Amino acid sequence: MLVPDPKVVRQLLTRYATLRIAQAEGRTAAVAGELEDVTRRLCATMGTTSIHDAVARADDLLARARTDCGRSPEADGEGGLSLAV
What we know:
Blueprint: H1 6-25, H2 29-46, H3 51-69
Helix pairs in contact: 1-2, 1-3, 2-3
């Protein structure tokens, strides 16, 4: 099985979270379209059909990548928090 690049996954999660915040502040057609696109890309990258599953798998992948590199979430500036949907 192919494993997604953690850097790509981190970028997708960051973009997803940013767009969710923008959506909460006031939904626009542009934000909705971008959010739909990044949701589809994140699901495809993580091999899921559900954004909830994609975020959970992405969190697991990034946690394993940190462990493999001997890094803590704090060292990556994450504080160990997942991107709950």
